[in-house]
Amino acid sequence: MSRLSVRKTYKLYIGGAFPRSESGRSYPVTSAKGEFLANASLASRKDARDAVVAARKAFAGWSGATPYNRGQILYRVAEMLEGRRAQFADELGGGKRAALERVDAAIDRLVWYAGWSDKVAAVLGAANPVAGPYLNLSTPEPGGVIAIVAPADPLLGLVSVVAPAIVTGNTCVVVASESAPLPAITFSEVLATSDLPGGVVNVLTGRQAELAPWLAAHMDVNGLDLTGVADADLTLTCEQAAAENLKRVTRPVDEDWTADPGVGRMARFLETKTVWHPIGV
C-alpha cells in the first residue's frame, strides 16, 4: 500500500523551544534546481527580540560553566551530528559523497573547537611584566550576547561561526542562511538534544534585510557578526546601528570554511580583564 510521507515542519529555535514565527509568516525554500523543498518560518522583529531575551537569560549560566564542561557539550553536539549524517547530507543536496564530506567537516570542526574550550584562556591570556611588587594578569572573558548572520554555507559555515562564539562562553542569536535555511533548523534539533542549555543558541530563519538591522540596533546585543551579509548597503546600515552601544563588529569576508580556522574567531568576541595583585617583597 502507498502512503503519504509525514512532511517536516521547519520552525524557529528560541530558548530551547521550536516556536512558529509570531507573525505566522513563512516562505518557500527551493533546491538548486528550483524544486520546492519546504516552507520555512519567516521570523519577525518580535521573534528577534524574543531570541535576544532568551540569549541574555542563558548567558549567566553558560558563561559561568567551566570551560571543560562547555567543551564536553560541544563534543556531545558532534556526537549527535555524527548520528544524523545521512539526514544532513540529504538536506544539503548535491552529490551524496560530496554532501557527506561537508557533514563530516562540520563534525570535525565541532570536535576541534571542543578541544580548545579549556586552552583558549591560556593562549589568549597573559602574565604581564610590571615594574613593581605586583602580579598583573590578563584573562579573556565572554563578551555577552552575539548576533550572527550566518554565511551561505548552510552547515559547515554555520558551525564555523557559532562554535567559536559559544565555546568561549558567549550566547548567540543566529540568522540562518536565507536561501538554504533547512540544515540550520535540523542542526537546532541536534543542539536541543545535546545538553546545550536552552537559549545559548537561538536560530531565526528569514530575511537578512529584515532581521539584521534590528539585531544590530538592539541595545542588549554586545557583538555583531556580519559574515553572511552580501549586501554592502546592509552591512553599512548594520555597522552604523551597532555603533550606538559600541558593539564589536565582524565585517563580511570571503572565507574558505575548509581551512584551518585558527583562534581568530574565538578571540573576536572576548573581553580582556586585567587584574593587579600585590606580592610580598
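That was protein one. Protein two is written in the same sequence-then-structure order:
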Amino acid sequence: MTLQQLRYAIIVAETGKITEAANKLYISQPSLTNSIHELEKEMNIVIFNRTNKGITVSKEGEIFLAYARQILEQVAILEDKFKRNDGGKKQFCVSTQHYSFAVNAFVDLIKEYGQNEYDFSLRETQTYEIIEDVAHMRSEIGILFLNDFNETVINKILKSYELVFHKMFVAKPHVFISRNHPLAEKAIITNTELEIYPYLSFEQGEHNSFYFSEEIFSVSERKKNIRVRDRATLFNLLIGLNGYTVCSGIIDKNLNGKDIIAIPLADENNMRIGYITHKKCMLSRLGISYLDSLKKYLQLNNTKTN
C-alpha cells in the first residue's frame, strides 16, 4: 500500500467515476483501475462497488477511506513542518445541528487554512445523520446537545457506534421570537404563555423522535406545530407568524438577523452542548483549530450572559 494509492482511492470516491478521476490525476484509466484493484487485493476489502451505472463506495470502503484521509492529513502535517510547503489540498468536514456558533467557527477555519487549495464541508443536518456521519468517518466532528430527556437514548446510540460526547457548554433554554412578538418585552417566558403561538422545529426525517429533536422537548402539549428543514425558513416563519422555537439562546445577529431575539424559558432543564468524535480517530490539526474557534464563541456567549 502506498500514499499514492490512497490518494487515488480518495479521488475516485470524490468523482464517482474512474474516467473522470483518471483525467484529474493525469494518468490512464487502466493504470488507475489496476492501482485500485491492487489496493483492494492487498487490504483484502472491496472499497468500490462496480455496476453498469458506475461505482459507489462500499460500507467497508467508507471506513477505509476515512482512515486514508487521516493518514494523508498526518503526511500533510509532516510536509508542512519539514518541507515547508502547503501539503496539498486541505480537507475537513463537520456535521452539526443548526447553531450559529458552528458556522462562525467554520468561517474562522477557512480564514486560517483556506489561502490556497481546500475542500471543506459544513453539514447542518438532522441529529441522527450527524451521528452517522461521525460513525462512518464522513465527518471528523459532530455538534449536538444532550439534556436530561434525551441523554440516555443518545448515549446508547453513541456507545454502539464507538463515539464519545465531549461537553463544551451548558446553556439555559431560551425562546427565539421576533422582536415584534407580543411576548418580546418579557424578561422570562413560560410554556403556558406560548400555548397560543405556532411552535417551529427542525424536522428529523425518518428519525423524527422527540429524542432527536434539536429543540428542547417539553411535557407541555404544543397545539400548533410547524416543522422546517432550514434555518432561513424557520426564522422567516418566526417573524411572519409570531411563531417561536426553543434553543440554546446563543444568537448571532449577522447570521440570524436583527429581528430575532432570545428570551429565557422558565421551567426547562439545561442543554449540554458539545461535540462527538470517533474513539478510533485522532483529531487533525484542522479539527483542533475548529474546536478552538468553537470554544471561543461559546466562551464569548457565556461572558455576555453572566
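The chain has eleven helices and twelve strands. Keep this in mind for the problem set.
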